[in-house]
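Predict structure. Chain length: 508.
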Amino acid sequence: MRQADRTPAYPPAPRPLALVSLAAFIAGAVAVAGFAPFYLWPLPIASLAVLFAMWAREPGRWRAFTAGYAFGLGFFLVGVSWIYVSLHDYGGMPMILTALAVLLFCAYLALFPALAGWLAVRFAANPAWRLVFAAAAFALCEWLRGWLFTGFPWLSIGTSQAPSSPLAGFAPLLGTYGVTLLAAAVAAVLAALALRLGSGMARGIAAIAGLAILGVGAWVDGIEFTTPAGAPIPVALLQGNIPQELKWRDDERARIFSDYRAMIAAAPAKVVVLPETALPAFLDELPPEYLAALREEANAHGKEILLGTVERTSPNTYYNSVVPLVAGHVAAYRKHHLVPFGEFVPDGFKWVMAVLHIPLDDFARGAVNQPALTVGGTAFGVAICYEDLFGEEVIQSLPAAQVLLNVSNDAWFGHSLEPEQHLQGSQMRALETGRWMVRATNTGATAAIDPKGRVATRLPDFTRGTLVANVEPRSGMTPYSQWGNWAAICAAAALALLAAWRARHESP
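Prediction complete.
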């Protein structure tokens, strides 16, 4: 074999850990630009390639762990910096305590890419197979992050590929974590080529495999897994643009009621949707004459109203809900996946509420499986707030749901990255399910998203307005809607086992 074709033995000498950590931190921070509002989808893949190349060269597990941890810190400190806004600007937490809380949270999230690096070095000594193992381990650890302790799937690498990357075509097949696995596989190919691992033929095969992944993704994107289930219906999505600091003030209450009533009356649509907790009162505290007026308006003009509100079933039991405003008893959707510290307080952390100015805490949980809400002759699968980040939960309303609906109040996060990142999560849900997704929010991003994950229309953020979208009901099930995350998890686990087994039989 020619010298040039031999696999280099990495690392020739350990690089300074501080330098490696700094480079990993920067790579993680740069990866955030792959997400909304920037949508530079190649950057997360390139950043992962840098991280994987570091892991391939590292001689020790804890050095790889440190590099992965630094990557995670850069990624999350930049990517979820908006948590500071909600805790300090609107929650009233002192600045130093807020900064510490954000740092600790990001330090926890960084453990997941760090664990992937540790596992890659522990189970794959051969650099080439370590890269294969790293791709699988990264996807598995990302899935674990989205599940453990109620889960935080925000900034999944797979989501960064929606809607324009060729890899987004795999979303209806394998979901977000499957797209993460394939993005990591492409990153592993790039790392192998950069490090010149394996023979020339092996590198050529790897390059072809990487291009094939992208090509197949682009081809699959042209497949329609769902079909129209009726004529498009007009849906009016109301954006009240109520500043969070004013929403619960007594002197603003009458104005908010009046504004939403006027918007409902003016909305030229069959279905009218108000955002999460749109009105600053419990549902049972709303003036009866106000609700009667809304119902009369709806009946007179053939409208049906979905109201984001707080239902109270007893003095200490209340739900974050979406309620159809129709005569008689109609089932509401009640939020099941609650936000830690925002809607419930984990055991041992009650003291946090002493420093946060949040009007409600410890919501009750809705049922795990709830039927779609049928309004305007169309079945809507509802998710409230960040529930639409959990693909495995959104698909529970299928196949009955013909359109997906998210109501949210992202005013808690001000002019930060959060509303745009949240919108991109909804884009991925539309891709996974092959359905339209409509979003009604208080301050943005209020939008309608087509089944290919493309934003068809939206309102400008931080403006009061009504978005009327003609939404096509869809029927049928994508493979992901049937399998959930299991296909991606099993594929990643099988790839990790293969890489570990092959690495044991091939010298570094």
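Summary: The radius of gyration is 24 Å.
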